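Usage

Read records sequentially. Each one opens with the input sequence:
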Amino acid sequence: MHSVFVRGAAMAALAVGLLMPVSALAATTSDPGTGTLVGAVTCGPDEDAPAPSIVVTADGTHLQTLTDSAGRFTLVGVPAGESFRIEAIADPQGSVTSSRFNVNVQPGETLDIGSMDLAICGQPTQPAPTLDDQPADFSQN
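and closes with the structure output:
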């Protein structure tokens, strides 16, 4: 009778383990020396419009991400225990930015740094037209 109970408990534990979401397993196997930053980028005069497709970086690292359509971002793999400047960059020239200074994440932590506000909304850049982009003109003058 006792072995039937132990065997049933073992089977239940196995079933729970197999049904556990992969994300829960990933959280326990991630790099213990890093953390994750989350937040949002807004723009405009009232700083309430979501800012999609804005580059967010951890200064001094190779880490960067883009905001989603709601202006939210997730920056994974930020070295823990170090202070960083986090920047939201609205344009390729880097002329419109918003920064958070001395951001420090702990190992395994997901830290919400809140909203970073840009004075103006970033605009997608259009490449300059080339001669190949112009229609051919075969008319005689």
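Summary fields computed downstream for this record:
- DSSP finds two helices and eight strands in the chain.
- The CA atoms of residues 41 and 86 lie 12 Å apart.
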